[in-house]
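Exercise: predict the fold of this chain.
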Amino acid sequence: MIRFLIDEDMPRSTAPLLIQHGFPASDVRDIGLRSASDESIYAYAQKHGLTILTRDRGFGDIIRFPLSAHHGILVIRFPNETPTKTLNKFIVQQIVRLSETEIRGNVIIIDSKTIRIRRKEEK
């Protein structure tokens, strides 16, 4: 099962909503990682087998965070003025459509119109 680490640029309500829908989730603000570097958040996620859910485009950098070396990174690209309820509803709708195989080791960019998956190379 996919377990999520919610970055601090996401709404506070995202983790509880994911939990309500059956996805284990932790918020970086609740585990001592508020204002932590991307590398610290990434390291924590890897140590604990978590998929990162963020709005930070920096996590989409496959040089810093190589494909297949992690448990998945979902980058949400929505305007900042998007209402929290709308954003959260959309996130849940998209996550339930993705399989664990599609998430693990890949970077997934989700915006209002598309889901793009940067896939790890299959061996």
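Check your answer against the key: The chain has one domain: 4-118.
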